[in-house]
Protein 1
Amino acid sequence: MRTALVTGASRGIGRAIAVALAGDGYDVAITARTVTEGSSVEGLPGSLESTAAEIEAAGRRALPVVLDLLDRATIAAAVDTVLAAWPGIDVLVNNAIYVGPGNDDRFLDVDPAMLERRIFANLTAQLLLSQRVIRSMVDRGGGTVINITSGAGVSDPPAPVGQGGWALGYGCAKGGLHRMAGVVAVELGDRGIRCYNLEPGFVATERVMSRASLAFVAARGKAPSVVGEVAAWMLRQPDGVIPNGSMVSVDTVGRELGVIA
């Protein structure tokens, strides 16, 4: 039995990856805040319930687990729930992010409390969850981590946030998480741990499609399913084919696989 844990899997990229991994034979534990369809605080479609149904339709087991990146207690509890139910976690996909007030504010306009919340949820919480999962992977002899990175974490915006760019808090959080793969590869590669960054490029997720401020992304965005296909492809590659600690571009691989024109 191969198992995966995908965070932020109620919709968008996380849902697409969870479904793609189920299609490749993984039982998938999925986390999010939205448990049932229609209960999203943002009014967006998608839920753990509906993602679990897709996983089960592929003939695999689904394990929905509530996880709020702002609630420290749920981070450890979510991992422990999966490890109690299944023998271990073979794959961790860090996809979930917190989106809240001030998301599209410029640096001097954003509320300091909102800035702090965003850095905790999108960097600190990710590291705490990853540490707990990776420790269990080491104990079992290996595992793979895929972090959903962003161009925002490695480059400067072409314009201010809302005009084709991104908020500083988002860039800082993604930049910090981006550094994890290389360090984990150096420290734990010899103990069977592979860690990668997956850069999705523009993706037309439900949230992107619902926001006028993200129209430039929606117009250029690919379907989330493309990201799922590339993530599944990564996990099928033997050790060494993708250098440990490196970044994979969905656009580049997607064109090679023929899933992007």
Protein 2
Amino acid sequence: MTTFTALGDSITLGLGDPAPAGPTGGWRGWAVFLAEGLPAGQLHNLATTGARAADVERTQLPRALELRPDVASVVVGINDTLRRDFDPARVYAALAHVVGALSAASAVVLTMRLPDPGRMLGMPAALARPLARRTYELNEIVDQLAAQFGTLHFDAAQDSQVYERCMWSVDRLHPSERGHRHIAGRFHDQLAARGHPVGSRPGAEPTSPPPTRRDEITWMATKGTAWVLRRSTDLVPYLLAMAVRECCRRRRPEPAVPGRTALPPAQVPRR
């Protein structure tokens, strides 16, 4: 039996991939698909909607260690970058504790570099660039931890398939079923390459029908609008201030920092 414990936020919980019709409904997602491709895979999904790095450290890690997983995933951080109090140092400290503790418990740890949400949401360049900078800082943290602890590291930020529209649900922040299957397949490949026992690779093609236009409109009317309003009163004013500072910074060339890769320009789809 392979015990797989998944830690993180709504991406790992499975949002964007509704579970097949049943008495309880809910979500499925990439962790389910990956568990199905592990020998006698037993999944414990501890992820919660809205979780931040500190939440994973405080509430999910203790339970994960009790389960003594063979494989554990830590995919979190997007909610940290979407808050005005984003603090890279605190995120690093929390994730270093989580990844380090799971590695010390002999779990094979899975981590992921996150794609740029500004690019997915089609935000104006002035707002997309500071958000891209935050995502870049988050990915630098995860890169460092992956190198330090030897995690299996999926670079979703540089995977061209990840940015295809069919990979994302209507909110453009959570993967669609196809997107969740893609993540599961990438992690399955890395486990196989590491020599970890695996079964059949998760299928890439969706088995459920995609949401209709009516489904998308209903989601936006019932849930999406509330999300936009919350972000408009929290993140957007802060992003505007960041955009002003970014503009001033670009007028003054930044001194080169030895050993640090420059942040590439934000890629924003043309309207």
Protein 3
Amino acid sequence: MADTTSLVRSSAAELYDAHVLKNYPRAPVTLVRGSGTRVWDDQGRAYLDFSSGIAVSSVGHCHPHWVGAVQRQAAELIHVSNLFRNPNQGELARRLVGYAGPGRVFFCNSGAEAKCFKVICATGGFHGRMFGGMSATTRENVKRGFRPLVPGFEFGELNDIGSFARLADSGTAAILVETIQGDGGVNPCTAEFLSGLRRLCDERNLLLLIDEVQCGAGRTGRFFAYEHAGIRADAIAMAKGLGGGFPIGAMWVGEGAADLFVPGSHGSTFGGTPLACAAALAVLDVIEGEGLLAHVSRASGPWIAQLRRLAADYPSQVKDVRGLGFLVGLQMASDTGPTVTALRERGLLTAPAAGDVVRLLPPLNASEAELARSAEIFREVLAAK
């Protein structure tokens, strides 16, 4: 009998070329297995995965606790609609409220759904691929081909509180920003800017909506990245790393706005299923049980210092290094394509952003040795040019 698994793997490129839409610039690599920070392709080659599924595999690939929790839940109850309660959803909401503060949680299937939506956003931001999210960005490559989009969005300059204040008027309902713009090129909000937005929202009676889809779930050494600024949000969108590889989105809404949602006002078929919540609960178990917030805070400083030395040593190639915790971008002097390819060929997987930025998004449990190795590989690539 034919080995159908090997047949599918050996013909993956042909299958993609014949049957899959070409909306992604996929690398010529077929990944088939993962463990911890490593993945393997169908040729048996190992890679250090510092793309993490674009900040999704927060506790690494196939963490034993996560796998066990998902396996147990898959054998018990996978899906029920939100017409009924399920215990995992209630427990996950309780734990997320513990991180975010008094309020309530709405569960959905992706970060693009986890937004409350005149709304003032930041130029260069990215809030997902649904119509509301696409409307909340200035980036033409995101909007192209999808017009007409949702009206009511205006844009201030990131870290320029005056530009937001000038736009806020009697028709404004909210301000929406990513704490760190990920896809836009790893551009962090300063603490002063976030504090200024909080004051502005309080003064004008606006909601402050924080997008933590990519930078949340521990990636910066705090569970939410905005915590570094010492502010509070009115609503928080989260997804990606929350599920550790299983699709889940959530929106926390503070007590002051939670009553805006009544039965029938919003919904999601796949939001907060027993299986999705089991995966997210396992992620929280690992983050808390293995002290990963403290690990990210401790290990990221020396690692980012190593990466900044690259910019000092190769100024004609690396223009800037920015980010926080395990969300770091190296802005290159030219298009990232050749650099991303060269890194992959040397065994390091990364994620490009904004055309000229290489994102490094290691799992939260990446070791100090693995972090150092990523910087070494980057140095090898720069030295070879």
Protein 4
Amino acid sequence: MSKRKPLRVVEAPADVEREPRPPVEAIRAAAFTQFAERGYPVVTVRDIMKACGLTQGALYNHFKSKDELLHDIIASTQGELERVCQHAVAGAGDDPRAKLAAFVRIYVVRHCRLKVEAVVANREISWLGAERVADIRRSRRAIRDILVAILTEGDQRGVFDSPQIDGRRDLKAVAMALLDQCTHVSMWYGPRGQLGEEQMAKLYVEMALRAVGAKPQ
């Protein structure tokens, strides 16, 4: 079995004043960081509570188990991703090109900005049981279907020319390829690179539009 490569988490400077988080938010933040750095199996409840400066018993005031905590943080970040994608597309107007650009932009910016959350949601979900995974998968299908609807509309209106294989289009496969590309920016993006979040999002928008054969506006 290959060794897990630790995720480097950049901390804010120590002299930055912060308002104290409510206990449940402190627990969630500590869990994200611990799971990202070390992986769900080896992190204990004691580790999480020590990281956020609370007693071990405080966790059980909000979560029944470490498993429930993992489900909570993944489901919450996944639900927010679905919400912001829906909102971005709804506000983009009628043109499928603008809708695709809005979708990709918000998706990539979020995955650049919330790297720790994205890594945990995509890597540690495998430790959850089938019942706990069900609503997360529903949300992921909903996000995929938003993208499929954009691609379908674009092809039907003649502004996209999505790839065909043997004369057939599989827009779900195209959507999944675009989502995989956008999701994995969280695995390598760093704020000290040549491109900032918005520039990276513009790059991914350009790649997505080219991938589906978008015609110039």
